[in-house]
Amino acid sequence: MSTRYTELLGIDHPVVQDGMGPFRTTGLAAAVSNAGGLGSLSSPTASGARDGARELRAAIDECASLTGKPFAVNIPVDGKGHDSHSFTRAFLEVVVRARAADSAIASQLRAVTTSAGNPADHSAMIKDAGLVHQHKVGSTQHARKAVEQGADVVIASGYEMGGHTHSKPVHTFVLGPNITEAVDVPVLLSGGIRDGRGLAAALCVGAEGVAMGTRFIASDANTEWHPNYARAILDAREGDDVTYPGFFGPVRGLRNAGSELLGSIIENGTSTEDSLHEWKLAAMRKAQADGDTVDGLVLAGQVASALTEIVAVAELVPGMVRDAVRILDDLARRLPAAGVTSMS
Ligand SMILES: Cc1cc2nc3c(=O)[nH]c(=O)nc-3n(C[C@H](O)[C@H](O)[C@H](O)COP(=O)(O)O)c2cc1C
Question: Which SUPFAM superfamilies match (predicted)?
Answer without folding.
Answer: Inosine monophosphate dehydrogenase (IMPDH)
